[in-house]
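This week, think about what follows.
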Amino acid sequence: MKWQEARELFPNQFLLVAILDYHEEGDKKIVDEVAPIRPVSDKDANKEFFHSKEGTMVYHTSNEDFVIRIRRDPLMKVRRV
């Protein structure tokens, strides 16, 4: 489903999603399609974010767009989504 649809189904909360499709614009990944897995409480959001598996992410539905900033630091280990 589109990110906007997920925002309507799960308003104003953290959501664990599988990222199905995205496109890149410069140093940003713009997520287009997601599969909601489950809502995440505010209390557990940070823990869930750092323990999410590859291809999944915790994001808050108050954000109009789902944007992931790409860091291109060669000394930093980055897990691709």
